TrEMBL record:
It comes from the Bacteria. It comes from Yaniella flava. The keyword Translocase does not apply. SUPFAM superfamilies: Arginase/deacetylase. Belongs to the arginase family. Agmatinase subfamily. This is Agmatinase. NCBIfam families: agmatinase (TIGR01230). Keywords: Hydrolase, Metal-binding. The lineage of its organism: Bacteria, Bacillati, Actinomycetota, Actinomycetes, Micrococcales. Coiled coil: none annotated.
Length: 329
């Protein structure tokens, strides 16, 4: 690491210095941040860790999210250290590092789910905040289990997605990318009074899908609501619903319109723009964000890095919220 010139502010080791090394060269850690293992070699650790979860054995339609982490990292090379959207320098406020990828069994969903929970707990043992890049949405269940264990209570959830992901089973399978939030509700790892889907749209199997979902405690701010009410009103509704609860944000990139994120597993027309998504995130500043994931990026269906760039920027704004919260704690 010492031979790579880096931006260092407030004693925090930041991205590769792009005035000295062009951003398209070298290994693509997220936002060209240091690797966690390099920091640990120097006896340091990180306040915020970015971890890849390359797993897509839970998908029902297009496969390929196992290649999401490496694609989002590659698409994150152009991110710069200062975020004008929040007027903060997240990588200077706290130490942020790329922790690499989890090693997940592609032939055994239950084993992979257990591995994700164990790895998430190990990475947060020192109090770090975790941002996980998937992977299909199956990974949210073990991440929510770990987040609620660390929080010591069920966590609030803002779930950005075209879909509810509270279905029961698919082809008899309990653990899929369409069922994580029903399982999380059944297991009691999410706070039934502080749950909301954001950006949902598209056809359902029937009205029962919505009735079941409501019974678990979920509110819905649909994609149409965002269009009709606007970002400001949506933000204030979400803030009211979440309050001061420990909050987990799960972002399925298919919440964006396919025009903004074509490279995803189950695309639906009529989604929000990436501008709306980033502005909603910025409106959540100060909420007690304890963890987040960004899932369902499929490079095989992406074009010109559209989806990868949207996921990288969404991740950057989530990191900005986490860094600001920790710096002002
Ligand atoms: Mn999903």
């Amino acid at each position: 690491m010492l031979e790579t010139p880096r931006v260092v502010e407030n004693g925090n080791i930041g991205p590769v210095n792009s005035a000295k090394v062009p951003r398209y060269s070298g290994e693509p850690t997220f936002a060209l941040l240091p690797r966690l293992r390099d920091l640990e070699t120097e006896g340091r650790t990180a306040d915020i860790k970015i971890i890849g979860a390359p797993f897509d054995t839970g998908v029902s339609y297009r496969p390929g999210a196992r290649f999401g982490p490496s694609h989002v990292r590659q698409s994150s090379r152009l991110l710069r250290p200062y975020n004008p959207g929040t007027s903060t320098s997240p990588f200077a406020q706290v130490q942020v590092a790329d922790a690499g990828d989890m090693a997940l069994n592609p032939f055994n969903i239950k084993e992979a789910i257990s591995s994700i929970e164990e790895d998430a707990l190990a990475l947060t043992e020192d109090g770090a905040t975790l941002l996980t890049i998937g992977g299909d949405h199956t990974i949210a269940l073990p991440l929510l289990r770990a987040a609620s264990k660390r929080a010591g209570e069920p966590v609030a959830l803002l779930h950005f997605d075209a879909h509810l992901d509270t279905w029961d089973t698919y082809f008899g399978a309990d653990y899929t990318h369409g069922t994580p939030f029903r399982r999380a509700a059944e297991e009691g790892v999410i706070n039934s009074s502080a749950l909301c889907h954001v950006g949902t749209r598209g056809p359902l199997y029937g009205k029962k899908d919505l009735d079941d979902d409501e019974a678990f405690g979920f509110g819905i701010v649909s994609s149409a609501d965002i269009f009709h009410k606007g970002v400001g009103e949506v933000v204030s509704m979400l803030r009211d619903r979440i309050g001061n609860s420990p909050l987990y944000i799960s972002l399925d990139i298919d919440v964006l319109d396919p025009a903004h994120a074509p490279g995803t597993g189950t695309p639906e027309a009529g989604g929000m723009t990436s501008r709306e998504l980033l502005e909603i995130f910025r409106g959540l500043r100060g909420l007690n964000l304890v963890g987040a994931d960004v899932v369902e990026v499929l490079p095989g269906y992406d074009h010109a890095e559209l989806t990868g760039i949207a996921a990288a920027h969404a991740s950057y704004d989530l990191l900005s919220l986490m860094a600001d919260l920790r710096a002002n704690a």
